[in-house]
Amino acid sequence: MSEAPLMQRPNSWQTAANARLRMARFRQLLALASLGAVLLVSGCASEDGGVQSQKLAMIKSRGKLICGVDGKLPGFSFVSSNGQYSGLDVDICRAVAAAVFGDPTKVDYRDLNSSERFAALASGEVDLLSRNTTYTLSRDAAGGNGLSFGPTTFYDGQGVMTPRASGISSLRDLAGKPVCVESGTTTELNLADQMRQLNVAYTPLKFQTGDQTYAAYLGGRCVAVTSDRSQLAGKRTSFPNPDDHVLLPDVLSKEPLTPASVNADPAWADAIRWTVYALMQAEELGISTSTIDSKLAEAKANPNLAELRRFLGVEGDFGKQLGLPADFVVRIVKAVGNYGEIFDRNVGPGSPLKLDRGLNRQWNNGGLIYSPPFR
Amino acid sequence: MATRPMPAAATPIPWWRHRQILPWLVQAAVGLIVLVLVAFLVSNLVRNLTAAGLLLSFGWLDNPAGFPIAETALPYDPAMPYWRALAAGLVNTLRVVLAGLVGSSLLGLVAGSAAFSSNGLLRRLARGYVELIRNIPLLLQLVFWYFVVFLALPNGSAAIQLPGLVLAKSGLYLGAAQLVNGVWQAPISLSVEFGALLTGLVVYTGAFIAEVVRGGIASVPRGQWEAARSLGLSQPQTLVQIVLPQALRVIVPGLNSQFISLAKNSSLAVACGYPDFYSVASTTGNQTGRDVEVVVILLGAYLVIDLLISALMNGVNRLVQLKER
Q1: Is residue A300 part of a domain?
Q2: Which residue, among A3, A56, A113, A72, has the nearest Cα to A262 in the 3D structure?
Q3: What is the pLDDT of residue B298?
Q4: What percent of chain B has pLDDT over 70?
Q5: What is the pLDDT of residues A74-126, one digit of tens each?
Q6: Is A195's CB within 8 Å of B151's CB?
Q7: Rounded distance, CA B107 to CA B98, Å?
Q8: Would you say residue A56 lies in a domain?
Q9: Which residues in chain B have their CB less than 8 angstroms from residue A221's CB?
């Protein structure tokens, strides 16, 4: 999801009595207070050369990671009927918990809507925001939302979904037709920009929530609905007849979906960043849940495999530098697998979404997934 | 026990306790406090906005809006400036408010009068309507009308065809409607969003107006009914010619506040996708980042609409008051 940052601030002018918004405002106040506090005390290097992150120390003493997710988006974060969270965004939370505690289940999830998410992160209510959030300048900048983004976990773009029977095959076919869109999002603005460029007049029907938007689309009021392509594919799986709906080939925008933490604690941000890179590097090195044990045995037996030994924490002190256990990579891979496994399981061929890897292939395979060297 | 000397009868009252001065002093003190508060709030706003580099400016209103609006009564296209988009949204709001005022008054009058019917079924229906509708939040009702009723309408040739009115998912068509290539065409066509919002507002406000009307009719002495009957007037005649004209004096002031809430409630339009003033302003704020200015414009516009309704109703009120000669 990709609401424009200015509208993330709760609007006092919403006449629809909305307690959530009031809550968000309260959270903003908390955010300001806690930001100040965190700025004062965070990020001091400890005596033993390891790094002391205020946040990391707090998470360790709490014994749980608190992770902000969407919770209603199949493939990314979705609560199953037995109360279990699953999805690509959820697996990032699990990987971080595995890195910190060696146990991917030590996570408390918080469902956040798009207007609450940044306030919840800034106020310290969640430690990590892994909620299909587009990485943008104003969200990153200290003068904007002031977040610290990790590596992008899913390269997405805005797409358009139409009923298969409508016969619409491109944006131009939408001329004069009603299109459902969520109000206050960047998708609303991207659609207006694109259609203006194409000189296509269309009828935008704007709704305040995603649920209303998809309900109007399913109700047959619009011949198209627009959002991030992955979100459309995910929502489609919950439709009565998913096969009756198709995604147009047009991609309207860049939407790099990226986990985020607060700017104020760079050491914690680094721990998240390298946890995600470990997932990507593991895939590149061919380390997966099925090969981790043999690779680890190989690394221990052969002192010449320096790169592998450093990566798996057999030698060197990468873990300590990040404030994590020495074998954090082993713990992560054992818990959730590598990036490719996470993708396939949640949104790829092994899931109902059946998304193509596309831009999310490894860099040496024509994609954008690229881990900097572990050295 | 302390004894207090009684004030001498001749001591004059201090000037500030003078009957003509004291009220002015109190007024001035209250006025001063209000002024200081307002000045504090405004200076605070200006200081913070300046610090954030967001000092109020309205120059952007002349920039091209660039976004389309689903339906407009005022001619509009995306190349027009923001102020024109906002004006189109305002006209959309006025359209639904005016239609809503007429519709809810008629519905309220009928339902309120029905509470005095000699027909028990009609009486209970009217009571049931008021109690059901008054006690469900308007937002839920709008969602119901839009998603459950209007979006369930059939399309094309399967549309519901009534004399002079065709109800289809693509819209509501008034007048001589005909199907051309699977698309309905009629002299007057309304969107289902407008239809759902109008229905929701009329049904909701109608229930409150029914109570106002019922109170008004109840305030007319029973003797008026009895006198009319003894003159041989039927019950409907009595109601229309004798009771309602006298009840108006009580009804009109109560109507005023119902009309004002209808105008304000119309801003819930976004729940059913109707591009009203609030919806257009919301997109404008999203696109320009001029949230504060947009709020100021919104506040001003709704204030003016409500003050106009109020002024109009006060005029009507003067017309129906007892004129003593």
Answers
A1: no
A2: A56
A3: 93
A4: 95
A5: 899 999 888 899 999 999 999 999 999 999 999 999 998 876 788 788 888 99
A6: no
A7: 14
A8: yes
A9: 151, 169, 192, 273
Which among B67, B146, B270 is the nearest to A192, CB-wise?
B67
- Residue A303 belongs to a domain: no
Judge contact between A130 and A69, C-beta under 8 A.
Answer: yes
**CATH number of the domain where residue B181 is located:** 1.10.3720.10
Q: Give pLDDT, residue A39.
A: 41
The minimal CB distance from A204 to the residues B68, B152, B267 is found for B68
Into how many domains does chain A fold? 2
Sort out which chain A residues have CB atoms less than 8 A from B294's CB and list them: 13
What ipTM goes with this model?
0.73
Q: Nearest chain B Cα to A220, which residue?
A: B151
pLDDT at B209: 96
Q: Quick one: which of B88, B97, B86, B62 has its CA closest to B295?
A: B86
Question: What pLDDT, on the 0 to 100 scale, is given for residue B54?
Answer: 61
Local confidence band at A185 (pLDDT 50, 70, 90 cut-offs): confident
Nearest residue on chain B to A193, judged by CA atoms? B66
CA angle (B6 as vertex; B4, B8 as ends), nearest 5: 145
Q: For B102-152, write each residue's pLDDT tens digit.
A: 999 999 999 999 998 889 999 999 999 999 999 999 999 999 999 999 999
Is residue B255 within 8 Å of B105, Cβ to Cβ? yes
Nearest CA in chain B to A215: B147
* AA letter at A204: P
List the 206-225 stretch of A: residues with Cβ below 8 A of B: 206-208, 212, 215-216, 219-221
Tell me the nearest-neighbour CA distance from A168 into chain B, angstroms. 17
pLDDT at A45 over 60: no
| Residue A165 and residue A151 share a domain | no
Structure tokens at B70: 């689903």
Instruction: Tokens for A200, please give them.
Output: 């296509």
**Do the beta carbons of residue A171 and residue A195 sit within 8 Å?**
yes
Question: Helices (H) and strands (E) in chain B — how many of each?
Answer: 10, 6
- Boundaries of domain holding A233: 158-253
Does the CB of A15 have a partner CB in chain B at under 8 Å? yes
> With contacts defined as CB-CB under 8 Å, which chain A residues touch B278?
15
